[in-house]
């Protein structure tokens, strides 16, 4: 009951006595932690490593030498939870808490008449009930902007009662019509809704193939395969898939020969290596100016990554933005920035933006391309003002049939197959959207990586370029473990059980006498260690080999569950850890204790700053460590328009100009959700 913000602050959740309708709460109908198919911390660690390496290469252009770049699974977990692992002095500030992270809250999954699931987020009762009010599914009206929809359920925690009231009616209405009809009507109405697909169905999407996000290649073992291809684009230096996955050791001799040749070249020309000797910047992206025109999470999270690397990020806000910027989710995507309030629908407001663009390095946004053109912030318009700009556009879907469909993290992950896999749907489970999902944040990472690489290219060649990616692309990268053969059949892979406890007996969570324990017995050495602790398993011939364990997985799970239930989690952890078996106790209090851990504070894993409305704000620290040019947390998330005068002055506006712009409402100063 409740969400992380409630737990960390010791707050009683809204409507504690609420009777939750059957099927409303997400996840398997049991107590305890959820085991997702997607290894979210591992995926996020890969993103962090790629970001750090790209930034270090950018620095090397100045210094001529490299540096050590490090990250960890813990830092990845911190990054995944930045929108909810927060401890603030005033958690009751207007708009800060939301119903979205409440464990009881519906996540918008509905089964349709064709037995297919859809993900509709944020659930809109009026859209669902009015569209289904008849013998045919018809859009009763449309909206131009989901944020202005009068029927949208608000963010306040108490609105979980509203959702609980409407959930049974919405489920019944959804069940009357097929999923394809709901997708069509949702597009007409203007709300996000898409089918929940398998990863294999995602690979069969022609629009993604046309864009190069899905590719065909010849695999030496399986023959023709369809796999995920390039998930972010650089207009002048596009990536390319260089070939299929190689068998271990295939290129050993070739690589050794290449290294030997490189070493010989370095010995022959020792001066070439350290040719550049510029002073290292204080931070990897120090001096880079970024204009953030984004909204919600995907765009702003990407620019927050750039801010943590030392870039100067100016958040360009509109008057409508305070309702979102006050939320804990927005607080996890906007730290280290300064906010300027500009009305871009006025000529003076647009002229003000143009003067900022003239002095910026990057323009970054995540609104739909058609809206960007209408507003005049599309690439052509921005490049006319500054031809050297790096223009980054992050989208919801592909440049294709869904370009103008409303999109978000949830619908992107539905289409790519992560929700199908994380819910154990192959064995009868229901789709599951994880609060650590990397649709929005993965999109943000891809955009940040692309921007850094575009800056690197511009520094070397003087050529600017466009960077683009999408939420769907990030979700496709998440499911890139999947591949299909020429006939569309998927390659065999492990599956998550519908109760979301694990992928196999040795890779799962188990209840012990007092808590849940996660084990990751993945190698022969791990199994040897487990057998030394539980010798009764070793005498069963079915469990001796990997093949045997796979065939008898159900029985092995049952026996392990029975054994592990006999002792406390701490006891099992002690003996298994000594035996070399990877394991960890699933702590219900980790997030609550995180900010009090002296080791976390000493290592910079947690940081503290002051926020104008939330007071003392404790948050996750830096997620990438650099040996020479460390990142920096530049400050708390800003209020909308908090730094308008300061930013204008820095960009060369004189006092009289600033006064005129404020008087004409072309720009505005601090706005909060309270007015």
Amino- and carboxy-terminal Cα gap: 32 Å
What is the level-2 CATH architecture name of one domain?
A: 2-Layer Sandwich
- Tell me roughly what share of residues is in helical segments: 25-40%
Write down the CATH class of one domain. Alpha Beta
Mean of residue pLDDT values: 95
What integer value in Å does the Rg equal? Answer: 26 Å
**DSSP strand content:** 5-15%
As laid out across the biggest beta sheet, the strand order is: 8-14-13-12-9-10-11-23
What summary fits the major beta sheet?
8 strands, mixed
InterPro entries: CoA-transferase_III, CoA-Trfase_fam_III, CoA-Trfase_III_dom3_sf, CoA-Trfase_III_dom_1_sf
Pfam families: CoA_transf_3
GO molecular function, one term: catalytic activity
Key features?
single chain, 675 residues, alpha+beta, formyl-coa transferase, domain 3, four-stranded antiparallel β-sheet, 28 helices, 14% strand
What's a concise summary of this model?
One of its GO terms (molecular function) is catalytic activity. This protein is of the alpha+beta class and 675 residues long. It has 28 helices and 23 strands.
Question: How is this structure best described in words?
Answer:
The protein has 675 residues and is α+β, with helices and mostly antiparallel strands. Among the domains are: 4-27 and 95-200, formyl-coa transferase, domain 3 (2-Layer Sandwich); 503-511 and 516-586, formyl-coa transferase, domain 3, CATH 3.30.1540. The strands form six sheets. The chain has an eight-stranded mixed beta sheet, with helices on both faces. Strands 16-17-18-19 form a four-stranded antiparallel beta sheet, with helices on one face. Helix 10 packs across helix 18 (440-461) and helix 18 (440-461) crosses helix 19 (471-478). The longest helix is centred in the N-terminal third of the chain and has 24 residues, at 40-63. The chain is globular, with a radius of gyration of 26 Å. One of its GO terms (molecular function) is catalytic activity. Pfam families: CoA_transf_3. InterPro entries: CoA-transferase_III, CoA-Trfase_fam_III, CoA-Trfase_III_dom3_sf, CoA-Trfase_III_dom_1_sf.
